[in-house]
Amino acid sequence: MAADLVAGKVDVIVSTGGITGALAAKNASATIPIVFITGDDPVERGLITSLARPGGNLTGVSFLGVGLMPKRLELLSELVPQVKVISLLVNPNNAGAQRVKQDTQEAARAKGLELHILNAGTEDEIDAGFATLVQLQAGALIIGTDPFFASRREQLVALAARYAAPAVYERREFVAAGGLMSYGPSFTDSWRQAGIYVGKILKGAKPADLQVEQPTRFELVVNLNTAKALGLTVPPSILARADEVIE
Fold it and tell me: Is the separation of the CB atoms in 85 and 138 below 8 Å?
């Protein structure tokens, strides 16, 4: 797909497919300006030289989605403190999957929790992953940061309800669709910033001179209707910190 865009001689490529899409765009062209949105570390992944001075033909937004996995585990554990076995759903096709697994596993170990990794890169594998929750005796679920999962949020939310699994997600849109809780940056803000950068580039700005933006605000969103359906009482400590409570 990236090669097709280059062949079409577009003026700017915008990649919202996480680190995988950004790397594909970079490998396809060293001259066409590329604006990326990723939850991974773009410097660590070799996309850019530094956040302040990206260099080359790429810039964009890094919303720290991968680095927030331990915080999501902490919030989920606070919501269901009686649960000692938790599952993590990860897309193994994502370039940042290993980092997600490591960070979450370390956080779980520090809290004395048992963490099971469920790999799912297709719709059928998502179904199969949820079906194993009962076998694993997992009492809660963390949905990994991944563009594919975002595109399948209706399926994920429906399965979480079917298996009565308290789950935490990366973005508000999951909770608005009926998910239990989310913690992360505003994706609306991230895409708006990407659009601003596209406008600047079309007016002559160079990606190398546009620092990679990072979020300054993180949202905790809770769906009380879903909590009630799961028989959960949301602790006052979480409600007090919530930026939005859906009733």
Answer: yes
Of 27, 30, 23, the closest CA to residue 96 belongs to 23
CATH 3.40.50.2300 is right for the domain spanning 2-64+186-217: yes
Q: How far apart are CA 124 and CA 135, in angstroms?
A: 18
Secondary structure of 95-108 as H, E, C letters = CCHHHHHHHHHHHH
When the pLDDT of each residue in the chain is averaged and rounded to a whole number, the result is: 93
For residue 229, count other CB atoms closer than 10 A to its CB: 13
Return the bridge partners of 35, or none: 14, 59
CATH 3.10.450.50 fits 66-184+219-246, yes or no: no
**Number of other CB atoms surrounding residue 114 within 10 Å:** 14
pLDDT digits (tens, 9 = 90+) for 13-70: 999 877 888 999 999 999 999 999 987 788 988 899 999 999 899 999 998 666 789 9
Residues 22 and 36: beta-carbon distance below 8 Å: yes
> Which contacts (CB < 8 Å, 24+ apart) does range 104-108 have?
104/69, 104/70, 104/73, 104/142, 106/70, 107/69, 107/70, 107/73, 107/74, 108/73
Q: Could you tell me whether strands 218-223 and 181-185 are parallel, antiparallel, or unpaired per DSSP bridges?
A: antiparallel
